Amino acid sequence: MGVRFPPDLRDEDQPHLGLLSETPIRPIFILGLHRSGTTWLYESMAATFGLGSVTLHEVFCFPRLLARQLEGRASEDQAEIDAYLTEHGLATRGIDDIGLSHATVEEYGWILQRYGGSLKVTPRTKRVLDRLIQKVQHQAPDAPAVLLKNPWDTSNAATIAELYPEAKFVFIARDPVRIAQSQYKNSLIFGGADVHFLMMLMQGFWLGRFVIGCQRLLWRLLGQHLYSRITVRWILGDVSKELAGYRAAYAALPAERKIEVTYSELSGDPSATLTRVGEFLGFAPDPSALAAVTPRVRAGPLHPQIERVAVRFRERLERLGLLRTDV
């Protein structure tokens, strides 16, 4: 829990912000629940359409992205990140098999939290997000837009749409039972395994670190069995709440500003799904990048703890009008 990377950096970009005065703000937001496939969709869209993206480099080096770029030293920061990950044996995110490097895509919420005080887009944190978008665009001037994802903002689409009137939104929906299963597996990691990478992302975020600390304490005090039963109950309630927020957020946006894909569509036929997204956004896909996105069907057995509650959970969602059969 004592991770001290990345270090606190002074704002080296302040003298260079005038360079961003003509840099456009063209965001595209991916919205979806945690563990619904947002990262895979992000990686696929960024590569297929040549979009600017937020990576670990931006998360860890946000205050000096411009300065390092102008000095020709951005690669030094990137190499430092990669060296730290290698030194600490952090080959993947730990919660899945996504590999870690300075180029791994990440959530903008970590930057908003560290430099704006909230994980979500608000009128107050907009200034931070504006700077982030412009810095990413400045680093990738040929990119047609900057792609952003942050599951914390899934129910916040109406506010984001008002703050960014030209923004487009790509929603991704997944079977809520599978979402609950994936979140449950994460909870086992948070409670009893190494969370070094998460602590890196939470540098300066005391509330997030406190929550993880409480989970680890519960694991030690109650044991895995009781911890699991308590965690499953909490996760099912949270997924229900977030799913309701997702539905309300999607309904709040006009048709011309949103598109929805499902995890089953993306995993079954990524080429067709991404082509459809490109048509909505007005972007032509790069053929080789599109061909490189291969199907990724994940339909293994449910964890026994989730299997135990799956039927009741689906019945609950049906009563709430939240159950779908096409995800």
What can be said about the biggest beta sheet?
Answer: 5 strands, parallel
Total DSSP E strands: 5
Reading off the top of the CATH hierarchy, the class is best stated as Alpha Beta
Distance between the termini: 37 Å
Q: Percent of residues in helical segments? A: 40-55%
The string of secondary-structure elements, in order, is EHEHHHHHEHEHHHEHHHH
> What proportion of the residues form beta strands (DSSP E)?
5-15%
Descriptive account of the structure:
With 327 residues, the protein is of the alpha/beta class. It has a single domain (21-319), classed as Rossmann fold (3-Layer(aba) Sandwich). Helix content is 54%, strand content 7%. Helix 5 crosses helix 6, helix 8 packs across helix 14 (304-319) and helix 10 packs across helix 14.
Structure characteristics:
Rossmann fold, alpha/beta, 14 helices, 327 residues, five-stranded parallel sheet, 54% helix
Topology summary:
Layout: E1 27-31, H1 38-49, E2 52-53, H2 56-61, H3 65-71, H4 74-87, H5 109-116, H6 126-139, E3 146-149, H7 157-163, E4 168-173, H8 176-192, H9 196-201, H10 206-252, E5 258-262, H11 263-268, H12 270-281, H13 287-292, H14 304-319
Parallel strand pairs: 1-3, 1-4, 2-3, 4-5
Helix pairs in contact: 5-6, 8-10, 8-14, 10-14
How would you sum up this structure in a few lines?
The chain is of the alpha/beta class and 327 residues long. The protein has helices at 38-49, 56-61, 65-71, 74-87, 109-116, 126-139, 157-163, 176-192, 196-201, 206-252, 263-268, 270-281, 287-292, 304-319; strands at residues 27-31, 52-53, 146-149, 168-173, 258-262. It has a single domain (21-319), classed as Rossmann fold (3-Layer(aba) Sandwich), CATH 3.40.50.300.
